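Section 5.1 Outputs to date
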Amino acid sequence: MTKNRSTNTQSSSVRPHVAESSLSEAQFKVAVTVDTLKMGDFQARWEASKLLAKSGAVAIEPLLVILEEEDSDWELLWFVARILGNIAHPAAVSALVNLLATATHEDVAGMAATALAHHGTTAIAPLTTLLQQEATRLFAVKALAQIRHPEAISPLLTLVSDPDPAIRAAAIEALSHFHTPAVSTVLLPALADLTTSVRKAAVIGLGIQAAHMDTPELGQLTQHLQERLRDFNLDVCCQAAIALGRIGTNQAADALFEVLQSPHTPVALQLEAVRALSRIDTPHALESLHFLIKHSVSASAQLATLLTSDVQQEILAVLGRTESPKTQEQATQILLDLLHRSGQVLTLKHKQTIALSLGQLGQPIAIDALIHLLADSSASVRFHAIAALKQLDWQQSYQRLHEYADRFDLDESFKQGLTIAIQEWMN
């Protein structure tokens, strides 16, 4: 939107087109600044707009004059709208309503709507009026969405069945941030809307609403969202996975686990489902991840053909990001079990990510397993193991390194790895 406007008149030499003696000091300063706003380049206008916003009501009249001038360029009108949004006065609201109704440039109309939203509840009534006009309806909806006040709910509810899908989607998105039974009531039917953007907005909105629902409601919502995991549009499917992660129940975890076992699930949805399971962060959800990773790294397992290397990597990574103490211990055990049972088939990237996750989990029980990774033939795996050890109990890790180094039954590669680790420890 930025325009480089050149002018021979520098802002420092601009003078208002009115006699100084007829103005108060405040009015004179505003007049000077308004002239800079009108004739300056973008940067000068930006600075002038900040000054005018601080001037308050005294700046409104000269700004209204600009709005009435037919030769005002759209960038200037954009700045005027921005300024009026920061002046708490009924005249500013009226001017913005008129500008939104008459603007011929989309950016100007958008800024007028945003500026109206800055006025809060005083703008709800005029914005509701603008909802009746097709040309201004979408901008009015977006402005109401920014106000976030219960008084905006009623006018927004009238738009969830609007013929224009863009209006429906915008209204649903705006309503999603209000936590009342009426909102959930209108969001659920929107899950079956024929327009993708509306279904997506409804899925996102219901995921937000989930934090304020009781157990029976969450059960019903999970069933509805599970259907959207098989939506024709992949974005809707991914948003459904995210919403199920927000619900966070065992039923939601089972729905995500089910989609991960389907041979028809796209990789993008698999990744979102894995992340959603990790966000649920319960023993039940982690057990699902354990099952998936345990079977997918085995060449003979059916899941090995279902989950790509990227999805396997994501499972190993999210296990390291669990947050509650109980699940951190469980995640550590899962990763240690994987090293113990599947060490021979783990790839280089698998072992690197396991080491990284064990370090993030910070459980001292992982020290010995990480030390054994120092015998790996890959220098990268060894350095990942060293970095992880440094994140655990520093003294205990250092002591165990020396205990291993003093043993005589180790092969040369293991001894070399231990030597490097001890050297790195002191850096």
